[in-house]
Fold:
Amino acid sequence: METKKIICIICPQGCEVTVCGDKSSRTVESIKGFGCKRGKTYAENEFFAPVRILTSSVKTTNKQVPLVAVRTSKPIPKELLFAGMEEIKRLVVDKVNSGDVIVPNFLGTGADLIASGSVE
Amino acid sequence: MEEKIYDVVIVGGGPAGLAAAIGAKEAGAGDVIIIERDSSLGGILEQCIHPGFGLKYFGEELTGPEYARRFIQKAKECGVEYKLGTMVLSIGEHSVTGINPTDGVITIRGRSIVLAMGCRERTRGALMTPGARPAGIYTAGAAQRLINRQNIMVGKRIVILGSGDIGMIMARRLTLEGAEVLAVVEIMNYTTGLIRNRVQCLEDFGIPLLLSHTVVEIKGNNRVEGVVVAEVDPATRKPIPGTEKLYECDTLLISCGLIPENELTREFGIKLHPVTGGPEVNQFMQTEVEYIFACGNVVHVNDLVDNVTEESLTAGRSAARYARGELKKPEQEIRVTPGNNVRYVCPQRLYPGAPATLFFRVTEPAKKVTLSVLADSKPVITKKLATVNPGEMQRVDLSAEALSGVSTVLVEVR
Structure:
């Protein structure tokens, strides 16, 4: 059993939600402090498996535009952010358009690494 | 050859200028031109590669370049002209004078002008932080541009002064890029940026946030070698002697607020509001000079680009209307004033008998408060708010009826 305090970011209110539960069996023993339904769902997800969109930039071969912005197409597990940065560091792209897939199934997460800027 | 007269000339091609151009075209303007000093359109969004844009306007989470791209494409589709690499030198009577390497000095004439120059960062000099003047001191946005667009890392051990959104976002970005962020130091007793950023940029990475603290000295000869941080008295915001602590670092980032960039506005003779630092406008984003409109961070610093887009579309539409002979200055305008716990309200003046959206910021954070809007001392809106925070702009919509036959409007939070 584990207890965690989570600040809700769904709206500017910033409710402090206390979740007590078991991560391995995915059961919530108690949840307090949320102000709405969306906040409750957010806090539960944050408790079991927090996810984030990873954004960074990738080197290009273009001298005028040395970097192009990239992002994961959907949120990936929070604990993979630094592993993702290691992967991104190794990449070099030539010409890309915003939305192009650079790495499919990034780190096996099911999310793609996509360009969020363009290099012509 | 007869000189071309544009319906709308827009100064600045960031989110405000782009939305104003689109708004003008959609409202039926003929020739519309954007003048931009950078080498591309999009403004600051091009370096804001983090997500969180567009949640309100598009209902989806985009990065800065993605948000900008939608507007750049749309502006091009609706035939907006633009001049890049062109620095505007002055505003004149129905004209804008700029300079670029190809044309030299050029004057562009317009029936309406929209000011959309955005803002710039408060620097170390403006804060008057004592100590040495070594390399390694950056404003957070300058560091953001170097890292995200130019592939230049700014340092390895970093202290950030100010908990504005850009500072917190850079704390995360630097951490992901392998630097160590020792602390984010904030003179106020609350974070000045959004809660979302405090959680996802600082708490996610265990970056210490020191509230009611400030940097009292910068050390180092050639490069920053450390900064001295002291606790401040929350009431006076003066450092408390004996609380100084040295943080050994090679870089100091400053994220202590933004200043609307209004040299052009001031030189033309338009008065600037003492609190916002921008020109006063009415709900059509019209300044005191009836053919000059203004929108975005040049008017007041916004926390969300979505709001900038909304008010800039209004500015563009209004500029188009003025160009075809509407929206002449009314004989009398309604004066809007901030009341209890309200730092400022924008717009500051209102056209009578037209609906208006008021944006405002509170002075102090508070919970469970009542927002009241009084027209000629009579309440027209009373609303309960769960939380208010200086970092989060509030809005309230007023109907045309509420603004008929009144001469003053007061906004207060108790």
